[in-house]
Amino acid sequence: MANFLIAALYKFVELADFRELQKPLFDFCEAQGVKGTLLLAEEGINGTIAGPEDGIRAVLGRLRGNPRLAGLEHKESWAERMPFYRMKVKLKREIVTMGVPNVHARTMAGTYVKPDEWNELIADPDVIVVDCRNDYEVSIGTFKRAVNPRTSSFTEFPEWVRRQSAEGGILNKDAKVAMFCTGGIRCEKSTAYLRSQGFEHVYHLEGGILKYLETVGPEDSLWDGQCFVFDERVSVGHGLEPGDYEFCRACRLPLSAADKASELYEEGISCPHCHGTHTEDQLRRFRERQKQVELARRRKQRHIGVRPERPWAAAPAAEQG
Fold first, then answer.
1. CATH number at residue 200
2. Helix, strand, or coil here: 289?
3. Compositional bias (Low complexity) spans (predicted)?
């Protein structure tokens, strides 16, 4: 039985007093038994939280009680186990970090496309379909015909646009460009950036891949694979059912059954993606941590100290989208 409700949310909205919102929001989440990460910045709010249904509904109600967040939308899914270890409310310069000033997603985002209209758009051969996520996310699933920019961080996306806008690139300012990401936030900022660079025909998937997988059945789907998520579920499929990937606890990249069968995989220590990249000190720490995990497993307890290391390629957990 799924006991924990997961809510992914974001909203671009002017929050000049975002610093003052931090502690009251953290205290309220803690009191409701809610865990996860929320990011606050002058440009809005972003994050994913999980907890008992009553607790999540209470937090969402509190957020929407702020008139500026009254229209906050969220996406729901369920988990049998709590997918987060603690609650964090962080202050940021951006709620999704592109690193380019004066990109105003609130007023400059491209045209929203509903999930049930998305297939028709991306089936058009004249439309350039761009996956705005990072390479490790794209590796386990994407839309048919989608271009992978092969970024390791969202901050690399503007440089990819610059290269692809030059002679010989795939982008030109008269082209139709359809963009998508996990939950919609990176798409809004990406399309706002393209519009700031003179692109006129820019579209993005409203609600992101998560809303598409929730809305569109597998029989009609143009999605191929699973969708990476930034919590202990690791991946989800149609209907937002948990997938079959796991985290490498050394690099935080998703592992398939084939990855785990590799001779380079050692549980908690290394995987085919990161084998040979760790220092001896890191390996000693990983082995000690894995020893504690196995002891807790034999006691049928959860070792909450096991958190994936921040990899060289992975974005901070709350900056999904």
1. 3.40.250.10
2. helix
3. 311-321
Answer whether 81's CB lies under 8 Å from 173's CB: no
- Per-residue pLDDT in tens (0 to 9) along the chain, 321 residues: 568 999 999 999 999 999 999 999 999 999 999 999 999 999 999 999 999 999 999 999 999 999 999 999 999 999 999 999 899 999 999 999 999 998 999 999 999 999 999 999 999 999 999 999 999 999 999 999 999 999 999 999 999 999 999 999 999 999 999 999 999 999 999 999 999 999 999 999 999 999 999 999 999 999 999 999 988 899 999 999 999 999 999 999 999 999 999 999 999 999 999 999 999 999 999 999 999 989 888 887 665 544 443 333 333 444 457
Q: Phi and psi for 224 in degrees, rounded to 5?
A: -125, 110
Pair (169, 126) in one structural domain: yes
Query: Which residues lie below 8 Å from residue 234, measured CB to CB, with a gap of 6+?
Result: 228, 242, 243, 245, 246, 247, 254
Query: Cα angle at 246 between 242 and 249, to 5 degrees?
Result: 140
Q: How far apart are CA 79 and CA 303, in angstroms?
A: 18
Token readout for 106 is 């609130």
Statement to judge: residues 209 and 171 lie in one domain: yes
Global pTM value:
0.88
C-alpha 128/C-alpha 145 separation (Å) is: 8
Residue positions annotated with a catalytic role: 181
Domain end point (choices 225, 243, 260): 225
292, HSE (Cβ side, Cα atoms, 13 Å): 11
**Are 41 and 125 in a shared domain?**
no
Domain that holds residue 40: 4-91
Amino acid type, 77: S
CA distance linking residue 287 with residue 299, whole number of Å: 19
Extract the tokens encoding 312: 């060289």
The residue with tokens 């809005």 is: 44
